[in-house]
Amino acid sequence: MTDVFLAEDDKYLIELRELAPAGFVVALNVNWSGPQILHSEFDPQWRKEYEDKNYFILDPVFYWTITNRGGIRWSEIKLPDVAKVAHKASEYGMKYGAVFSVRESRNRSFLTAARPDREFTEPEMDRLNTIFQHCISTLLPTPNLTDKELDTVRSIQSGKTTSEAASDLGISENDVKSALESAMKKLDVKNRPQLIATLVARGLV
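and the corresponding structure tokens:
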């Protein structure tokens, strides 16, 4: 795990702190051994209690990131909270929150942010997601894809069939299939939708 994160003067970090005055956590490339990058600005006492009491095992917000993609407000998560994690978090000013999750191959990344006063609005949810995608594209290693592979993915992403993409790029259909298969292998994904979603999350297409 590394402590590398956005610079103090990064406009996205400044905006994130404004959007989430009760704090936030960004965890990138999380696997069985933990996150590659972890940055938390939640109350230090809450972080200690959360870790000491292993709340993550029963935390509905954390569990949601394991089983879902996209974004949601904490209040919209319909999972049992047997340990009353939400109530205990509210004692530290984290009464309202949102969480965003992305899965890439076997790893996942998530952002969870909190406010003490009200729910996040729809525009704020959009901005949080934009900042989350910025963290992913800025802080995680960029896959070593060729221009041909990226151009092929962009053509397929636009809705073109294999035949149409081949015509659009001036290559054969076999070349289109080969470029997509090579890109999927590099990113360790199984199909075209996963490939496109991963590259969109990285800001590469």
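(Above: one complete record from the training split.) Strands lie at 24-30, 37-40, 70-73, 96-104, 107-115.
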